[in-house]
Design brief:
Chains A, B: It holds the Pfam family CbiC. The structure is a homodimer of 206-residue chains. Chain A is α/β, with parallel strands linked by helices and 206 residues long. The first copy, chain A, has one domain: Cobalamin biosynthesis CobH/CbiC, precorrin-8X methylmutase (Rossmann fold, 3-Layer(aba) Sandwich). The first copy, chain A, has a 6-stranded mixed β-sheet with strand order 1-6-5-4-2-3, with helices on both faces. In chain A, α1 packs across α2.
Chain lengths: 206, 206
Amino acid sequence: MEENNPREIEAKSMRMIDEEIGNLNCTEAERKTIKRVVHASADTDLATKVSFSPGAAEKAQKLIREGADIITDVTMLKSGINERKLAQYGGELKCFIRDEKVMEAAEKTGLTRSIMAVRKAAKLPGKKIFAIGNAPTALFELLRLNEEENLKIDFIVGTPVGFVGAAESKEELMQSDIPHISLEGRKGGSAIAASIVNSILYMMGD
Amino acid sequence: MEENNPREIEAKSMRMIDEEIGNLNCTEAERKTIKRVVHASADTDLATKVSFSPGAAEKAQKLIREGADIITDVTMLKSGINERKLAQYGGELKCFIRDEKVMEAAEKTGLTRSIMAVRKAAKLPGKKIFAIGNAPTALFELLRLNEEENLKIDFIVGTPVGFVGAAESKEELMQSDIPHISLEGRKGGSAIAASIVNSILYMMGD
């Protein structure tokens, strides 16, 4: 009755997803990412909500090939990304939410740790892909740094979830000049952000 | 415009959730868990899908007070649970998915690592709460161990997500004699499982 072979389960899931989402007006690479998002959420409604800046998957892959690090807003998202695959290209997976200085600064200012964590990360040297699955405040801060502080943000996978600010922060990302993959509306989360990042890594082959 | 104080953001979110989900036929404790699930998913449809065995929250709290460990199916879920809070009662947060013997056994049998990981965990001494956010196969295996191998499973937070087996495994859990909190349908995931476990920990006060 139930299936126990992980490869068969995934293949069967992907066939069901293909059937249920039907035709979409998107590139082959975009469809692969969309299928991973639906796979992670079991929410077929999201198939038409994933938003890509032009050539987003290719841009993210180029950054990864150049050794970009991936910075996550929360440790849960960090746990969901295929670190081994990223390491093949020299990049590291990082999260500063539990960094001591970040925690002190958040305490002192009353701002979220997520804000302080991305502020710290954005100022580090090197190429970076930000993956924001949880905190709208982190995404707003990246947009502000890009706009007001002239800190060019290379790429954002931005899918914060929630009732306060999540949809608005993603809307602003979609309007920005930052290369991105995002999701319309309130839904999102770490699993979805991880599925997007992993879809990009998996498309890169071995 | 956007809010940056984490306590205010959470309080505002919870007020919005209260308003949107309206009256539910459930206990005060159940409502707290349901609100956390909606908060984690931004999916108000889930408010009526969370399923509790009788007195589930109280049973889970009793286990935690007795020093139960919490065993997760995947590391992503482990990252999402408040470990510090659990440690106050002597319990540990554990996940065996990357355990060397588990990986070897999965390779040898062609079964999922999730199956092998819960099989190992269930045979350890001591009280345990299983939190299954991802793998239907892990949940099916726990149900089998409970039924066929007479390994009494104390409690399951079971919210695997997906197209193959997820809804069916949760349905079987809801029909079982194992104390549980679960979610009807295909949706679920690590963030939802974490939100349920954390809601129980947060209700325990300091």
